[in-house]
């Protein structure tokens, strides 16, 4: 998973959990609706200044965004690409896997714990 995809998914999850529209957040963040949509879809990489503006509009700390993105990417890298796909098929937001951030309003009981096992050598 690319960083810009994980950032976009996390921002979209935060926005939709707040029942806010792209227009509402783009206006509050002072960014065009089209550009915000591109960021959420992982098509554009947002600058640190733009991420700060979007996070402010979502009342989300940049550090919480980055923590969630890091956890999402770590889970995917450790467990394989199927984990997040299975989580979303079961009705969980993609960022729920491995997330401990209360600020994103994700119920800790929905967290997915995937044990790490090494493949046998030889």
From TrEMBL:
- What is any Pfam family matched here? HTH_31
Keyword Transferase present in the record's keywords: the answer is: no
SUPFAM superfamilies per record: lambda repressor-like DNA-binding domains (SSF47413)
HTH cro/C1-type domain boundaries: 11-65
Task: For this UniProt record, give its keywords in alphabetical order, as a comma-separated list.
Answer: DNA-binding
User: What would be an example GO MF term here?
Assistant: DNA binding
**Does the record carry DNA-binding as a key word?**
yes
**GO annotation, cellular component aspect:** cytosol
Supply the name of the protein.
Helix-turn-helix transcriptional regulator
The record lists the organism as Nakamurella flava
């Amino acid at each position: 998973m690319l960083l810009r995809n994980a950032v976009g998914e996390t921002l979209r999850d935060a926005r939709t959990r707040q029942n806010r529209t792209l227009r509402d957040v783009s206006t509050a963040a002072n960014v065009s609706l089209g550009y915000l949509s591109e960021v959420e879809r992982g098509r554009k990489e947002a600058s640190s200044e733009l991420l700060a503006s979007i996070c402010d509009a979502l009342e989300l700390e940049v550090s919480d965004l980055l923590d969630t993105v890091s956890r999402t990417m770590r889970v995917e890298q450790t467990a394989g690409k199927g984990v997040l796909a299975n989580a979303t098929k079961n009705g969980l937001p993609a960022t729920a896997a491995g997330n401990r951030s209360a600020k994103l309003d994700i119920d800790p009981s929905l967290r997915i714990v995937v044990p790490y096992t090494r493949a046998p050598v030889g």
